[in-house]
Amino acid sequence: MAAILIEYMAPIMFGALVLFLLLGYPAAFSLGAVGLIFALIGIELGLFVPDFLQALPERVYGVMNNDTLLAIPFFTFMGLVLERSGMAEDLLDTIGQLFGTVRGGLAYAVIFVGALLAATTGVVAASVISMGLISLPIMLRYGYDRRVASGVIAASGTLAQIIPPSLVLIVMADQLGRSVGDMYEGAFIPGIVLAGLYAGYIFLVTIFYPKATPGLPLEAVGFREADNSRGLTSLAVLAVASGLFGWMVMRTSKTHGADFVVLSMFFSILFAFAVAVVNWLTSRFIGFRFLSHIAQQTTFVMVPPLFLIFLVLGTIFIGVATPTEGGAMGACGALILGAIKRRLTWDLVRQAIESTAKLSAFVVFILIGARVFSLTFYGVSGHIWVEHLLTSLPGGQTGFLIFVNAFVFVLAFFLDFFELAFIIIPLLGPAAEKLGIDLIWFGVILGVNMQTSFMHPPFGFALFYLRSVAPKESYIDRITGKRMDPVTTGQIYWGAVPFVVIQVIMVMLVIMFPAMVMHYKGAASTVDPDTIRIEMPQVDIPQIEFK
What we know:
single chain; mainly alpha
């Protein structure tokens, strides 16, 4: 027995951890307990040097002293304040009216708002619960299939885990030892593409199953003009003009990739906001209006979150602020927006602070437990065992990526993101780096993969969040007065399955097209180092005569 333990200490230790987690013990305590128990066993067998444990206090202090992790409470607080100040409700109401009569319009609105909330909140729970409370009753009222409605709400909420300023990406960057700013910039385009794939799926549903995603009836759509038109032409002209203005301003700049997109967006929203303000002033004092009601309403509703996106992501991308500083500015911006909307109360701030403290403590305790586990795991040469196992896989980089993603996908059925990030990522990172894989690209691939942990039936947290707000019993709709059937747990689970498949497709796309991520490195230098010549001017040195 002792010989088996000595030979296979590392895999036995990892298997014991998985067993503890599957039995339902808290992740932080499971990590710490397994680490200490196997440290004692290793000392008895002569595999583990007791001096390793002397490094434990310094490793725990390193967790507390980590400036990168300070961004987590800032972004969490920002998201909770925005969610409670009604920004999600305003966005869903306005964008829902905008897309309403289009078949599948409410689903498109949920995806669009989900992407906006992801870029401002970064918190899955806030996004899923907000959209579940606001959009699900409307979708059910007008005949949406319950599986489609629940699936698109849960999936759109999980966009907060891949679109910056995601908490997932902060932890991923910390565990891989890379810049959070680079991780944000690398994940920006894949996050937008994933939202586009969600919209593409809804488009296919509207074609092949039109009854599953009906458009709103005309009487349910507001924002009418005096001639009873919807005023969409005015909105389209404003959108095109704003986009062209932002593009023209940035065309001569040297920015690229996500920097170009975010800065172009900033100048576009400044232009649109200025036009909307002038329209409001002229209509109020002169009685002349050149924008439609829907154009002005959409502008005023979308400018605050878009400005907040620039305040956070724009300052990080252009190098003005670190992620922690960007999070602090975002938290202040959320408080200011809440105050402008006159929805900022002491009770709201207190609830946001309490929830932020709980989540931050949860993350820190898991990380401390992970430090204890990794100390023992490294002490018994477990990292060498993992590295040899992964680097010896057939197929080189491709075989490694296929195996790792399949492994993480299976584990995501049972473990949540934080458990995966703190346990698995530190073991995979060194092997990936040894194979020559860019760790930012690798982190984004795993980030998209781990996003499925929120959607996997039956343990996906996004499904739990939606289940908590979806009707469990039949009810009377307050608008139509009709009795509505409840949303079953099975319908929520089946609704999530197509979006899990889409996320797997997205993982494959990021692997096949690494340029979606690698743009974070910027334009490569065109200078050939072999052609560089350093010429020194001829200097006449006077002779010195010694006597």
